[in-house]
Amino acid sequence: MNARPVRYTIDSAWQAWHDSQDVLAREWLVVHYASLVKFVAGRLAAGLPRSVDTGDLVSAGVFGLMNAIDRFEPDRGFKFETYAVPRIRGAILDGLRGLDWVPRSVRSRSRSIQEAITSLEHSQGRAPTEEEIANELQISVDELNTWLADVASANVGPLDHVVFDSTVASNDATSQPDHVMEKNELSDVMREEIQKLPAREQSVLVLYYDDGLTLAEIGEALGVTESRVSQIHSKAVLQLRSRLSAAGLG
Question: What does the alpha-carbon distance between residue 202 and residue 69 come to, in Å, rounded to a whole number?
Answer without folding.
Answer: 34
